[in-house]
Amino acid sequence: MQSSPPSSTQSAPLVIGTRGSPLALAQAKHVRDCLAAAHALAAEGVELEVIRTSGDMIRDRPLAEAGGKGLFTKEIEEALIAGAIDLAVHSAKDMPTILPPGLVIAAVLPREDARDVFISRKAKTLAELPGGASVGTASLRRQALVKRLRGDLAVVPLRGNVETRLRKLAAGEVDAIVLALADAATTVIPVDDFLPAVGQGIIAIEARGDDERALALLAAVNHADTAAALTAERAFLAVLEGSCRTPIAGHATVAAGRLRFHGLIAKPDGSDVLETQRQGAVGDAVRLGAEAARELKQRAGADFFAPV
Asked: How far apart are CA 85 and CA 100, in angstroms?
């Protein structure tokens, strides 16, 4: 039986900070609904505060050139630190490797489908695209994996939310796009063929580490298996010091108390890819992710990520 939240939760509204994209708003509303259901909160007891981030404002160049990871979280985290909001809802894959002091990932919801999808009107799969066709993506990881599978394709930087990228595809700016799972998918790509980004498919809820009210509320909606998977993936990323400038992929699954991790690093042009796997107890999530990263770092050598 779940314990009741502190009495103060019934007085002041809980404020959730979120980006304003359709996907981000849908995720924030989902978190609001989960909290309301877990604690019998009225809808007006949870407010959404839309915050525009650097990642939303920078549209003229790839994010890797603008500072990498954290551009979709920075302003929301600043509002959280300042006390303007109580919780921050993020796509876990957008979160920086090291969180600002005082902030924690307090809860995650059950992982949704982490796979990437191929979308095109000219072919059913990446393999069926004609030589020289253009594939749009904003991700260095996806660029590297596309080039690994099809070195003859042209990878084109493509920014914007899902709707924007679909419009650009429809307008003929590219022949295909690869992005996180979407309803418009031509083909869903298997995880082992196209390893996801760390945290892909996970909604993470960030809070202040000393905010007992928020932490108590979030404890009831945290999904333990997803949290363990994300812990392993972020431990892998932390050892590799990953950013948007580094093609890194990592994906963990949990079943019957056992965690399986698959990690990968690649050269941006896909010419060299190193992979490794680990299995072990869920309680060893940090060790498993970190060990996998140390192995790849040793195998890669210092010049692996030098410009091609």
From this structure: 15
Q: Identify the three-state secondary structure at position 143.
A: helix
CA distance 72 to 51: 10
Q: How far apart are CA 244 and CA 283, in angstroms?
A: 29
**Is the entire prediction scored with pTM above 0.85?**
yes
Cβ neighbors of 294 (< 8 A, separation 6 or more) are 239
Element (H, E) at 6: none
Q: What is the pLDDT of residues 19-38, one digit of tens each?
A: 998 889 999 999 999 999 99
For 34-89, the pLDDT digits (tens) are 999 999 988 778 999 999 886 665 555 555 554 556 777 989 999 999 999 999 99
* 8 Å CB contact between 14 and 86: yes
| Count of H-run helices and E-run strands, the chain | 9, 13
Which amino acids are annotated catalytic? 94
